[in-house]
Amino acid sequence: MFGRCLFASRHTLPVILAGATMFLLSSCSDNKSQAEKPLTPVKVEQARFTSYSPAVTMTGEIEARIESDISFRVSGRIIERSVDTGQHVKAGDLLARLDPEEQKADLASADAGLKLAEAQQAQLQAAFNRSSELLQKGLTTRGDHDTARAALTSAQHAVDAARSSLASAQDALGYTELRADADGIITARSAEVGQVAQAAQMVFRLARDGARDAVFHVQESIFLRRNAFTGQQVEVSVALLTRPEVTAKGVIREISPTIDAKTGTVRIKADLGDVSADMALGAAISGRVVLDPTQVIRVPWTAIGSKDGEPAVWVLDRNAQTVAMRKVSVFSYEKEAALISRGIAPGTEIVSEGAKFLREGQKVRILGEDKP
């Protein structure tokens, strides 16, 4: 038994030693392979601040500075319409007319009322004059004279009321004619002949001649992110979309305090003053606002990656020759570069090329700094 074990040990020992030797040789080979694995080559550049004047481009249209709704001051059926949308009118021009029969009847009634009141006043005036004469002769009492005076005063008040009613009836008859209150262009119409128009119901919209505004609807994201239009005397360069050579300069004068819930835009108006006839009402325009310069760090597109769904860049640790990803805030994207506003400081070395296959803490080889 002991002999067989000794015999087996003598034959097994060389095999074990051979296997151990092969394992050690393999391990050394692996370590040598890992040690000799080439480092990922990258290009780096130093972050530097640069001045950047961002610009916002918008589209909009030309509108009148003053636009008003024109309506009848009395109700009635429209029997005549003299103008239509797009037509230029002068102040005082007749735009539409209501059926005046009711107002004419009221005027006739008021006129008759005034004549009756004046006749009664004349009778009471004569009676008061007679009472005054009789009082002087002692043929009437003071009480009867005072009664005559009171009746005359009441009649005079009735005449005044009748005259006021007549004036109101005359005005109401005049209100059956709708006339332009200024020179301008009819931009909208909401009534037609035969329709019953209510008092104060908009019948026409009039864009007055004179100063013009460029009106833009800016996306909420641009407005809030860049705070572009809150400074004093913000200038806008305006051009027709169909004829870019037709231009004008404007200054933002009004910003809507609310955001349109449907479109998510903010309405902005720029004062253009008096512009050429080429910039007609409703003309489609483009507007460009150059904002105040700001300090940004410009990096190539190849330097921008993503970390947790946010923009990020690879930053080089010069001493360890390793890289780490750092989140950044991108102010704006250009054709070949990204403009970083926050996240890295000037002087930081970032990977500009070769960032695609990097991992956190990886050692890299910097191109252009290879030892001979």
From TrEMBL:
It comes from the Bacteria. Transmembrane segments: none annotated. GO terms for molecular function: efflux transmembrane transporter activity. InterPro entries: MdtA-like_BSH, RND_pump_MFP. NCBIfam families: RND_mfp. Belongs to the membrane fusion protein (MFP) (TC 8.A.1) family. PANTHER family: HLYD FAMILY SECRETION PROTEIN (PTHR30469:SF38), MULTIDRUG RESISTANCE PROTEIN MDTA (PTHR30469). This is RND family efflux transporter MFP subunit.
